[in-house]
Each structure stands twice: as structure tokens, then as C-alpha cells.
Amino acid sequence: MLDLSDYDRKIRDLLGDADTYESLSKDPTPAQERKMNLLLLNIMRSGAILEPLYQQLRSSAGKVPRLYGLPKVHKIGVPLRPIVSFTGSPMYCLSKHLVTILSPLVGKSGSHVKNSAAFSSFIAGQTLSPEMALVSFDVVSLFTKVPTALAVRVTLDRLQDDPFLSQCTTLSPVEVTRLLTFCLDATYLSYQGGCYRQIFGTAMGSPVSVTVANLVMEDVEERAPASCSHRPLFWKRYVDDTLTAPHGITSNSSISTSTPLSPPSSSRLSRRLMAPFHSWTPG
Q1: Is-above-0.85 flag for pTM?
Q2: 123 with 282: CB under 8 angstroms?
Q3: 245 to each of 122, 260, 263, 268, 277, how far by Cα in Å?
Q4: What is the CA radius of gyration of the chain?
Q5: Which residues on adjacent β-strands are paired with residue 85?
């Protein structure tokens, strides 16, 4: 059980991070709603979407997204994971629609893990040589560390390379990324009557955030293993948790990779060296 005063203090500590949040003088919801509706109207008038979809995506009397925290009870000090509830906000339906367009783009890399069953099947076929070790990586605060400009660029590249896009939507890659940019830039929220704007990264809780984060991570993973000081046998990831098996590593070795996730408060990979294995075959 988390004391209410402790909960409030931890939330306000999160909001006090000047690299991630800034305080707003008023609720921007009405202005954002008008801006989004106009954007959708112009896209409909261009013929890219039909009126029924426009009516489905437009917003009326939308509510400001609300911030709350989920306690990380498995960590020292019980820090809070910031979650923004977008239900009822102007961007909610649009963000969900973008997920239907972008989700088919995810999972096309060799590093992608669909679920625990898929991982179990994969790892059962791996055998580590004496000079290998299992190493796990955790991207610290993934959602708030994904640069939106990088997210939009990666998404546009994937959309332009997708031969099946027309089966998912009548929108062009440029139009999809225009709508995505609006959703990613409209990361404002409320807590205890105050309004704030997230100035970096994507909001955890937005329907499209998980999809965009996966696309960015897959883009990172196309280059990161090549820059590792110890080349891995494999590199597998589920959301923000990665397991790899590099060569030539001991329990005292350091591992370095260069990743394009950028400041502020540059995305960090925290290493958990699980142990060197002289011979290991999964049971």
C-alpha cells in the first residue's frame, strides 16, 4: 500500500523533470481539438479519407489526458511509472486508428519477440559456447526517451517501403505521418488540476506509443549489434527488454553499444550480466 502523500510527492518529482515536462498556464484541449479537426477536415476534402472515417476520428468536447502513476513494487524505493490516460481525449480515436495502420509494420526484424511462447521456442534451440554469456538490457524509460522526430522519420521510411499499405488505408505515407506527428506533439496532460506538456518522448498510455517505440527500437537494432564491442550470437527483444549472447565476455567485462536514441537524459542501457556459461543447453 502506497501512502497518498508519498504517491503525490513522487508524481510531482516526475513532473519536476525540466528535460521532460513543462507547466502550462491553461488547458490546451479546446485549441488542440480544433486544430486536429481542421487537419482531418482538410485531409477529407483532399479525398484521402471518406466522411464516415472523418466523423469517426474527429472530436467533440474532448477531455484533457490524465496522468497517474503505477508503482514499480519490484524496484528499490517503489518508483512510479508515469501513465497518461488518453481515453476521452481529442487524440484518442485518431491514435487508435494509426495503430491499425502501423501495427503491420512491426515485427519484421529478426530481433522481434512476439510473446513468451515464441521466445521459449527460439531459446530452446540455442547453445552457448564457453566464451559466451547471456546478457540482458533494459532501456530506461523507453517511451519518454524516444525522440519524436526519429519516430516520424522511421515510420515514414517503413510506410514508403510497405507494398501492402493500400490494403490498410487510403492515406498516403506523408498523410499518415502528418497525423502521427500531431499525436506525438500533443503530449499534454493534467494532474491535480494543473496542466503540463511532455516536451520530449512519447507518452506512455497513448495507443500509438507502443507501436512507435517498437518501430524505433527495430531501427536501432538494425545497427546496434554491428557496433557492439562483443558481437552477439543473437539479439532478441520484447518491448524494452533485450536478451543477447555476445562472444568473448566475462563477468567483469564491459559492454558498449552506440545507439541513435538521443538526449536529453540520453537513453541508457542498463546491463544485467546473467553469468558466463562454460556450456549451456536449454532444457
Answers
A1: no
A2: yes
A3: 13, 22, 28, 19, 10
A4: 21
A5: 66
